[in-house]
Amino acid sequence: MIRLLIVDDEQIIADGLFETLQQLGHLELDLHKAYSGMDALKLLHDARFDVVLSDIRMPGMNGLELLRHIRSTWADCRVVFLTGFNDFDYVYEAIQNQGVHYLLKTEGYPKLISVIESVVEDVRASRQWSELVVEVNEQMEAASQVLQKEYLLRLAGGDSAANRETQFVQLKLPLNPQLPVLLLAGKIRTNRDGELDYTGRSRLGYSIQLIVERHLSPAMTVKSAIDDLNRLVCFLQPQISSLDAEDAEKAFEKISLFSAGMLDVIQQAIELSVQVPVSFAIADRSVSWDEAGRAFARLQYALDYRTSIDAEMIVTVDQTSEDDSRSGADNEEVRLILNKLGRMDACLDEGRVEEALTLLSQAKDVVARLPSDDVGMSMEIYYRITLSLLSYMNRTGIAGRREEEVDLSRLLRAEGPDSLPFAIEYAARLIPELLELRQHERDRSASQVINRIKDYIADNLAGDVSLTRLADIVYFNPAYLSRLFKKTTGITIVDYVHELRMKKAIFLLEDTDMKIQDISETVGFTSATNFTRFFRKYAKSTPYEYRDAARAKKSKMD
Predict the structure, then answer these.
(1) Strands 51-55 and 78-83
(2) Fewer CB under 10 Å: which end of the chain, C or N?
(3) pLDDT tens column, 209-266
(4) Hey, how many other C-beta atoms are within 10 angstroms of the C-beta on 404?
(5) Which residues contact 215 (CB under 8 A, 6 or more apart)?
(6) Superfamily (CATH H level) for 2-128
(7) What DSSP assignment string belongs to 4-28?
(8) 298 with 319: CB under 8 angstroms?
(9) What is the pLDDT of residues 388-398, one digit of tens each?
(10) Matching InterPro entries, A to Z (predicted)?
(11) How far apart are CA 555 and CA 558, in angstroms?
């Protein structure tokens, strides 16, 4: 949607330009008009405009003064000046400005339409945005640390990481996707959470990451991230380019020994620098990237279970054997699936049904393999799922409006570990239904909005049916309303208004004796001349010719 402002101190000219440009439905213009430079300035103060079509000579504030204000507020706004033969000095100054066009008033509407089409095309071309691509790249560069963190945490959470090599290149990660990786996990134990705001927590986390990376990076490549639960994950690789298995194995043994030997030094440095204890768990061997999520789950379990004894424990975790106090394999699977289920909210919000169902299938398999007496872990998995579903239903309002279609009691009624796989199956069946209900709600809301807009237009054809006015009625952004209307109905709002005006004009011409001037006002035109131009474009005849032909046809039938 292109926002265009018409400015002319002669009201009849401004109205004529407005009604002429209204007929250019293919341009999808959001039109506004002002009858003085000062009135235009008020509109420009309240909203952004893409194009201003203005008389260059006006009393009070002329077009050039208006141009200076436009440049100070909306530098990218295109300006088209309407000029007379005696405005050479004005025109000469105007054309010194980039993005300014001028048009002689004597050149007529076809030339005006051609210029406006060209300017609108230029505005849209600028939105293809070679400049934006550059800016996005710059912003991506600035945000690379945040994006790297998100991606590393997804890998640690068991993400399958499709197109891993491409992702590493795009995110400029210094790690090698073709080599294995050694995992180091940490748990930050601070009693100052209540004292730290978001900035303080972020600074603490970055400080710990910096200390870890600076101590390890001389001997290896290190990338780390900290999640919302104060858990640190580090990905370690030797600084080698060779993919030879024997060379890689020796290199990993070397960095494994170095890392394990440096952890107590790192702990002391963290304690001295930021005064918080950190526990570490390091894997005893490297793993493939596909195994990273499972390996991190094992480290996480070791930190949660073993380090309850000491806030600054360092442990090496065997990646092959099971824990001696409870089933390490079970805990590993549970931790991994719980990490993966963290993506469930995003899957529901974004309508990713297949991914959500895959997560539930994996969760069901894990629950089915757990010992029957391990109720706690099974219930944790199940209630993580139900929490996501209930949260989604509450966020979208489904829980309140569709209670008769969603059996919440059945969702919450898990009577024991034996029934959990069946309960998860019910949750899996519920997901497509919930998303379908959500889509029905959206469609119904959209239909209600569109019907309200249509009713208003029909009742106010002679009044203000501009996009801005229509958007105000339903409290939408004008550009969004324009897209929604076209998506729902298949035509633009401008074309719909034209269609209604033509239908009503034809009815009044055929079935009443109203004067053409009165008909033009009834269907929303300020002058019979503009109405005639509009009518001829769509009916290929003037209103007078159409009425005469309709009456002649009716006489023959009688």
Answers:
(1) parallel
(2) C
(3) 999 999 999 999 999 999 888 899 999 999 887 667 788 889 999 999 999 999 999 9
(4) 6
(5) 262, 265, 266, 269
(6) Response regulator (3.40.50.2300)
(7) EEEE-SSHHHHHHHHHHHHT-GGG-
(8) yes
(9) 998 888 888 77
(10) CheY-like_superfamily (IPR011006), Homeodomain-like_sf (IPR009057), HTH_AraC (IPR018060), HTH_AraC-typ_CS (IPR018062), Sig_transdc_resp-reg_receiver (IPR001789)
(11) 5
